[in-house]
Amino acid sequence: MDALDQMLEQTGGGGFVAFGSSADANVRYLTQFTSSDPVVYFRRKGERGTIVVSQMEARRAAGESSVSVMTRSEAGLMDIVRVEKDRVRALAIMITRQVEGEIIVPANFPLLLAREMEQFRTVRADRNTVEKMRAVKASQEVKNIEDVQRATESAMKSAIGLVSRATIRKNVLYRGSVPLTSEFVRESMQRVLVGAECHAMETIVSCGEETAVPHIIGTGPLHAHEPIVIDIFPRSERTGYYTDMTRTICKGEASPEVREMYQAVKGAQAHAAERIRPGATGDEVHQSAVDFFKECGYESGDRGFIHNLGHGVGLEVHELPSLGPGGEPLRAGNVVTNEPGLYYPGLGGVRLENIGVVTQDGWRCITGFAEQLEI
Amino acid sequence: MDALDQMLEQTGGGGFVAFGSSADANVRYLTQFTSSDPVVYFRRKGERGTIVVSQMEARRAAGESSVSVMTRSEAGLMDIVRVEKDRVRALAIMITRQVEGEIIVPANFPLLLAREMEQFRTVRADRNTVEKMRAVKASQEVKNIEDVQRATESAMKSAIGLVSRATIRKNVLYRGSVPLTSEFVRESMQRVLVGAECHAMETIVSCGEETAVPHIIGTGPLHAHEPIVIDIFPRSERTGYYTDMTRTICKGEASPEVREMYQAVKGAQAHAAERIRPGATGDEVHQSAVDFFKECGYESGDRGFIHNLGHGVGLEVHELPSLGPGGEPLRAGNVVTNEPGLYYPGLGGVRLENIGVVTQDGWRCITGFAEQLEI
């Protein structure tokens, strides 16, 4: 009896219904099936789940999915569309015929489909039961994340190698006769990932002033003596699991201010790592980094440490639990990042991000990659 | 005044609100902003749109987005969360303070957020106003699709080159001393795409019996004298636009049955291409392919031609309009695929897919790549 069964028991719901392609992490998690077209997942109280797919997908679904498979015809859709021309309403009729009583759906369930289902049945939005299930990883899920992390470290190594091997002319980094750019470093990392069937979106390779804004991905030539932030969150094409990793490097000597920021960030990361354990709240762990930075003379909030310390990672790159204000108690099996950062316009930004799994009595860091500013 | 303004005018809605990351095509289309975290988009009646982003994203949003930018603080969220601890409710309060009167949201708007907004305001689910807007492409959007199609043709060329250069031993294709596999061909295509900042998910490289099931992606060594279906739908990382392309090839001589199927598919594609024009319905164009296949002695439905003739392509790989049963009238600016296919377990499958734009009086094929079965 998992958390979804318990939720149905507690709410008195007759069944749980999700709808979406496998781009929807809840659907992918519940069905273990990858599909770019939306599928219906339903679980009647006390039963295991079922997915409803097109005839064309039935064979593949039976092979891949961990749940029962039903075709749309078997679910009666073909008969329904003969009388009901509206596709959304037809789908709603099909769904409500499969589940008795009140229907519980995920928070992100599409409103229009819910409205049509409400013509026949009470529909209630669950808050985050599946998200909370997803937050506690099974060992295979941790392994999936470890696999993509290993590929990511190869990509990071190649990126740092490019910067390390670059020559400097008038403070610009060169690869042979051409400037070494953010774009080139990004593409070189992607090439490493392709070989491991992984893919990264919006990888950050920012430099200098850009680094003071955490989400600027960076463009153009890289410079010496300025911080370079490399933040990459690839996903395995095969398993769908993400990882997340950041290093800040500097070709040549960094400014005294950036060096100090780097030491503070590294210290905050080590300080927080010791506080991640079952029972500690994400709020407390985040606050421990805020306190550490304060001791070092750095603010948090609008300037300095301006984001959360970390977040869960799994089938989404940002998922539960949060290591931030309001973050709930951690549980063994949570996979979270530990990523303090400091940002000052005019000086630049520094961020270091590791990922690890909450164990019975602490946190096992999955990232195995040195932290060194000047290269 | 665009279709969204007209919809607000007709429904009497006070404003339109969307919510999501740029993985949501409607949000990306309306905001022209890429974000892996969700943003709120709202448009009050008679005004241009606004996005609400975190403080951290404000600068980037102002640079990238085509609409007004407001931070969550400016939208009052920080004040609201002081009294309202529930995050979804706080967001609902923030949204309902920005828009007066009835609020219209997209069909896929998250149910829980809608429920919270309904505490304060009537919320109505729109059916597909934005999806219909997205179906008619501006010239820049067509150019975005053409760009990713060019990269895709390079990738297809490299894939076909691998098959063409392969040697045959006991009917298995070899690349030097190792069998040429689906996986290798897929990876080689991905490598070509990386150089053009494009990326393909779930590329199909299926062979033999696998090809009879359109959505099996294919695994293991490729074989001579059997159909090989290569179906790739990459997306530009920069613009977010997709394309979609399929070729069926055979190393060496194909069976007479597969040759005949190939000729019929090619014929159906040419036949349908002449029927795609403004005013023709997607239903009619699909039916023209069904009729053509019937003339050639092939069934449609459960066997033979078992899927739709085509679909719109843009920020989603499957979007409006549909070239299938129930498909609505086409309009100039629609970008649609033309992809007839035949599938027979025991014999295999053949599919050919081009993409093109509906013009004032016909259809301009964007795909510029030969169709040849035996290589």
Structural account:
- In chain A, helix 5 (87-98) crosses helix 6 (111-117) and helix 10 (256-273) packs antiparallel against helix 11.
- The model of chain A has no long low-confidence stretch (mean pLDDT 96).
- Chain A is 34% helix and 22% strand.
- The first copy, chain A, has helices at residues 3-11, 25-31, 58-64, 77-83, 87-98, 111-117, 129-135, 139-165, 182-194, 256-273, 282-295, and strands spanning 15-20, 39-44, 50-53, 68-71, 103-105, 123-125, 167-169, 172-175, 178-179, 198-200, 204-207, 228-232, 234-236, 245-249, 310-312, 319-323, 335-338, 341-344, 348-351, 354-358, 363-365.
- The first copy, chain A, is an alpha+beta fold.
- The longest helix of chain A has 27 residues, at 139-165.
- Chain A has two domains: 3-134, Creatinase/prolidase N-terminal domain (Creatine Amidinohydrolase, Chain A, domain 1); 139-365, Creatine Amidinohydrolase (Alpha-Beta Complex), CATH 3.90.230.10.
- Chain A is elongated.
